[in-house]
Amino acid sequence: MAGTSRVFAAQLAGLPVFGPDGESVGKVRDVVAGLRLDRQPPRVLGMVVELITRRRIFVPMLRVTSLEANAVTLATGMVNLRHFHQRPNEVMVLGELLDARVTVTSDGASAVVVDAGMEQTRTRDWVITKLAVRERIGRLSRRGPIQVVPWEGVTGLGFAEISAQPQGAQELMALFDTMRAVDVASALHELPAKRRYEVADAMDDERLADVLEELPEEDQKDLLTHLNEDRAADVLEAMNPDDAADLLAELPDFDKDRLLSLMEPEESAPVRRLLAYSHDTAGGLMTPEPVVLTPDATVAEALARVRNPDLTPALASMVFVARPPQATPTGRYLGCVHIQRLLREAPFDLVAGMVDHHLGSLSPNASLGEVTRYFAAYNLVVAPVVDDQEHLLGAVSVDDVLDHLLPDDWRESGLPETAVISES
Questions:
Q1: CB burial readout 161-175, b (16+ within 10 A) else e
Q2: Residues 376-394, mean pLDDT to the nearest whole number
Q3: What distance in Å separates the CA atoms of residue 272 and residue 152, rounded to the nearest whole number?
Q4: What pTM does this model have?
Q5: What is the CATH number of the domain that holds 307?
Q6: What's phi and psi for 260, nearest 5 deg?
Q7: Which residue from 25, 32, 140, 290 has the least number of CB within 10 angstroms?
């Protein structure tokens, strides 16, 4: 095998994976090891690779021809594209070993695992031979020194112990800090429930809200019910109102009403308005927080608003102009201004002079089919939702429409179960 024959597992996280002719396959998301009944070093079975479709597949270590500091290269041949499922005797090195509590046998010190060192043997097998551990001082682990010890130099890493013992999430969170919310959600989805809860408990409300928005519906409900009521309400407040409404709509009425009552009134009000509409209508799909300006706003002000990094590209593509108040439901809706028009005008010009009065709007009761035809007809990525009294209620973005049009498993559908990686 070219490249290194010794590596720490955390260094592999996020590395791109290439075929023999340089074609991109995906990214490394975890390493899978087989735990043994004795205390001998476990064999590294393979890697969990995330394809561009976000499906996670298993790639055996024997298929890896090169481990470099910046990439992993695979050998020519067949790759099984079935979705990865962890077997009972397997452990996810990054997802489960990190932060595991162990005892260093040489001095009896309590420690946590911060990384795992892998080494290739003469038979081309990879085994976990070393562990980087941080001594725990009192209840804290971050203050202790880090030392590298042999796998046999610690106790506490049996499968039953890993499954049962409470773990922190400090090291795993350090990895997640370098990943987008959608990638963290994909990683959480693959973790055992116990580990998923520990990670959720360690996240701050804003980060957990971002990740929840990217999780499948069942995972969302599972994590929300795991949280205590007060924290669940705080996380819902941090979510986008339309995502919070979608999640609450799936809960029993008692739980939904209880959580809404625990939210701050100004945060729950837009969520309650969204819950009044069916999920497959423009009112149910919309966000109540588009960029809304008054007619006397300048182009410079409009551009400053759309530069907000929290806005999705779709919502940043258009600003809506309305009479005060600007919060939805607004005063009389006047029209919209496309970002391309803003970029062509002088910064001190008023948006009132460039409003598109002719672009149609959607009724909050417009069906999903009507919304879809609207986007197709006008070639837009965001659309205004206006009521009978000409108040702007919110905006529907094309990504929300796609989420409702595609089947739940669309990311995994249409792929063969195997694919050939070949040299050109």
A1: ebeeeebbbbbbbeb
A2: 95
A3: 56
A4: 0.81
A5: 3.10.580.10
A6: -60, -35
A7: 140
